[in-house]
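Exercise 7. Given the encoded structure of a 357-residue chain, write a plausible sequence.
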């Protein structure tokens, strides 16, 4: 009997179901007497013992389905060692439920926070395999996370739509893209969507440089300018602040996000009204694109192989195009950010896109 637990944790994204299907199908194909238990709403299900046995039929027909059949929730890593309101020790509760079900291994699909808790469970002696999901593509140790390409398609489509209306009216537009503390999604969607200015957290911007880029386009006779602004973009000025002061400024700010502050600054300095579009959670929704379906299926299948070989304590990543196990202890707690000196930034600057630096 091979008993496997599965859970999806943190913000959802496309291809979570495709990845779980990949794990399950590869296990059913290659092992006898496989039982898969799904924990509901991420680590919460593991803590409180909310799970159900999943039948092979539940993994059929979900390749193209967005969201997660298991549900998900955010359970902050920093609170994992803090007892819940009833004094329950969450880590001990997770271990107890794992052992009660006599699981051989737990397959965890998640992003950065999820990986920290997965590593903690590994340190506590559980057999863990993880799969890297997130639209942010910020997980260290993998070239690509599933969900990212689907989200980039949706965000790029937002730019396509904005292009026609921006051109008709001759306006300045900001499209604010998700991505948390990193700029991968903004960079890719901005390039694919033909943005003229791309602002990412890794390259703090100077408002005057942003305005110079808009005015340069005006002088060249361009009727409009489109900015791709990461939700985590930061000005050079704010980058000088301590983390604490930055958080205080954000809390006290009258602007709902960085894009609104920037739009106001552009208006005050140039008299140009700026329109803002925030695609928001649309970027995480809907069916995975073919790239993500393929990636998630490959990673899921490789996870099953690691289980069969009992190579636990790994995330399945894609490294230089090859699917590989990456030790969880190396992954946990690190963020994969854009290198401002990388070739993609040089290439994109060379075609005249401004990063406001
Ligand atoms: O990590 C995925 C992500 O969509 C980020 O891009 C974004 O900052 C965050 O989650 C939003 O979180 P929530 O869905 O909890 O509002």
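Solution.
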């Amino acid at each position: 009997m091979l008993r496997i637990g599965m859970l999806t944790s943190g913000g959802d994204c496309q291809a979570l179901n495709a990845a779980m299907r990949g794990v399950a199908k590869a296990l059913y194909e290659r092992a006898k007497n496989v039982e898969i238990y799904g924990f509901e709403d991420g680590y919460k299900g593991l803590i409180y013992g909310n799970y159900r046995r999943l039948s092979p039929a539940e993994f059929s027909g979900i390749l193209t389905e967005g969201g997660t059949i298991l549900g998900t929730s955010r359970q902050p890593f920093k609170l994992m060692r803090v007892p819940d309101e009833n004094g329950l020790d969450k880590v001990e509760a997770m271990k107890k439920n794992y052992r009660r079900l006599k699981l051989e291994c737990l397959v965890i699909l998640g992003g950065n926070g999820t990986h920290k808790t997965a590593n903690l469970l590994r340190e506590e002696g559980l057999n863990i395999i993880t799969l890297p999901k997130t639209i942010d593509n910020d997980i260290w140790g993998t070239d690509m996370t599933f969900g990212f390409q689907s989200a980039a398609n949706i965000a790029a489509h937002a730019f396509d739509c904005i292009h026609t209306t921006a051109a008709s009216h001759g306006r300045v537009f900001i499209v604010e893209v998700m991505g948390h503390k990193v700029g991968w999604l903004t960079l890719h969607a901005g390039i694919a969507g033909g943005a003229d200015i791309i602002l990412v957290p890794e390259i703090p911007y100077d408002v005057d440089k942003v305005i110079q880029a808009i005015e340069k386009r005006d002088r060249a006779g361009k009727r409009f300018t489109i900015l791709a602004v990461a939700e985590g973009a930061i000005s050079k000025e704010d980058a000088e602040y301590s983390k604490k002061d930055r958080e205080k400024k954000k809390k006290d700010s009258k602007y709902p996000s960085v894009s609104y502050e920037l739009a106001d600054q552009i208006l005050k300095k140039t008299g140009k009204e700026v329109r803002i579009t925030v695609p928001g959670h649309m970027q995480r929704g809907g069916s995975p694109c073919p790239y993500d379906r393929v990636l998630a299926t490959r990673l899921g299948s490789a996870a099953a192989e690691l289980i069969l070989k009992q190579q636990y304590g790994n995330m399945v990543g894609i490294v230089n195009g090859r699917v590989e196990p990456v030790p969880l202890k190396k992954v946990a707690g690190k963020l994969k950010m854009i290198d401002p000196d990388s070739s993609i930034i040089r290439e994109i600057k060379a075609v005249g896109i401004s990063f406001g630096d």
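Remark. The chain has two domains: 2-147+288-331, 152-284. Students should compare their own answers with the one above.
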